[in-house]
Amino acid sequence: MATPSSGTVDKALDVLDLIAAQERPVRFGELQRLSPLPKATLYRLVQTLVNSGMVVQNPDSGAYSLGVRLVRLAHAAWRQASLAPIARPHIDALARSTGLTVHLAQMDYGHVLYLDRRDGSEADAGFSDAGKIAPAYCTGVGKAMLAHLPPAELDHVLGMQSFQRFTPTTLGSEAVLRQSLSKIRARGYAVDREEYQSGVLCVASAILSGEGRPLGAVSLSGSADRIDMGTLEGWVPRLAECVEEIAEEATQWAFPVERSAAR
User: Fold this and answer.
1) Domain match, 27 and 123 both
2) Which H helix or E strand runs over 204?
3) Domain interval for residue 171
4) Residue where a domain terminates, one of 32, 47, 73
């Protein structure tokens, strides 16, 4: 977990992040091992989260998991503060016309947050679902958005990347990534050659505001054993149409400021 925040609300959010990261019910003893907070502080925060409905405790096992109240908040956020409702008909159409898997994403604290996914007739399993967080430096949607960040913001966000190698083709350094971003800006789209998930290829384009700021990105993905990069790149004009349609429709939407800095 990140360095503990100073405020009570920040600490409670850190605890929520910690519980969510386990992707399963977690006992207090495990939370205590994972959290840098003192035991008494951690217990008090967990009980506050339980009392507020943000976290629930299994009465039999004593394990904690995320509460239904968070689901309601997530749905409200999806409707009010994401591209998903605006983009849905456009990515639906893109999936139908290409037969491929379509992802919609935005940048979140220097990482990629997948907002929606649509599967075409030729789609395979194994791609990223809505709600998943992924690195920006080795995903098509992430690189498409990074390529259009202002220089100072790009410097900051690149400093947040781990450059962990997930596959043999993962871009392993900031210098190599910067070279790739220059090419992306020049040609207007990014590619992912099995950089994050082995066996998955994709092309991605950023959704840009009138000022050229990345509001999100859309990708087309396919399995490497069923499609090659040349075929995927053949769909780039259709992908470009999709992101332009979303950008045009989104001009009246009050876009949230991209959260590129940690709390």
Assistant:
1) no
2) strand 200-208
3) 81-252
4) 73
